[in-house]
Amino acid sequence: MKIDTIVNQPVVETERLTLRPLRRSDRGLLDMYGSDERVARMTRSIPHPLPPGATEAFIQRALTDDRDEDVWVMDASRSDRAELVGLIALERMDREQSEIGYWVAPAFWNTGLAQEAVRGLVEANPLDNQTIFASVFQDNPASARVLTNNGFQYLGDAEAFSVARGATVPTWTYLKKYR
Predict the structure, then answer these.
(1) Residue 135 lies in a domain
(2) Which of 102, 105, 146, 165 fits as disulfide partner to 88, beta carbons 3.0 to 4.6 Å?
(3) 66 — phi, psi (to 5°)?
(4) What CATH number is attached to the domain comprising 27?
(5) Distance (Å, rounded) from C-alpha 125 to C-alpha 134?
(6) 73 CB contacts (<8 Å, ≥6 apart)?
(7) CA-CA distance, 12 to 141, in Å (whole number)?
(8) CA angle (74, 76, 78) in 5-degree steps
């Protein structure tokens, strides 16, 4: 028998999604979606191909008490979709700031789920942030629209390394201020 530790992290409800903490039982869908090159190429940290053990290590980091990033599953089972359609996370920074990151499985692209998840997390503001930053690769304008539609302001251009691409990629950087 295996017992999962309950992570001290709030659940956020939106119209179609339950944003809930990651569980070990999410591994199968995370492996499947994380192995998709289309998903990996739009993130900074998912390698492609996905090496053995990467998903388990990610889940283990997300469940530790001393983590610096809170990860929520976009669970769409309430709206007759999959239990895991994507992930959204807040990485803690200093001075009451975080950086938001998210991805949605390709089968659920263009359904508004990313926009709904970002809106839900931004409105809930579970870390009581003063500021949330975000950056998206410039070849992913759909993710940029998700941010601007949720009140993020464009800050400027930058670059970030993508593990899946093995290269530095131009990004657009955004900011959401609360106070």
Answers:
(1) yes
(2) 102
(3) -100, 25
(4) 3.40.630.30
(5) 14
(6) 19, 20, 21, 22, 23, 26, 83, 84, 86, 87
(7) 26
(8) 135
Q: How far apart are CA 146 and CA 111, in angstroms?
A: 11
Element (H, E) at 109: none
User: Phi/psi at 36 (nearest 5 deg)?
Assistant: -80, 120
Place of tokens 């339950």: 18
d(CA 120, CA 11): 10
Enter the pTM of the model. 0.94
Asked whether the beta carbons of 152 and 134 are under 8 A apart, the reply is yes
Per-residue pLDDT of the chain (179 residues; tens, 9 = 90+): 444 555 689 999 999 999 999 999 999 999 999 999 999 999 999 999 999 999 999 999 999 999 999 999 999 999 899 999 999 999 999 999 999 999 999 999 999 999 999 999 999 999 999 999 999 999 999 999 999 999 999 999 999 999 999 999 999 999 999 98
Distance CA 158, CA 142 (A): 18
Q: Which residues pair with 92 in a beta bridge?
A: 98
Specify the amino acid at residue 48: H
2 within some domain: no
Dist CA 80 CA 57 (whole Å): 29
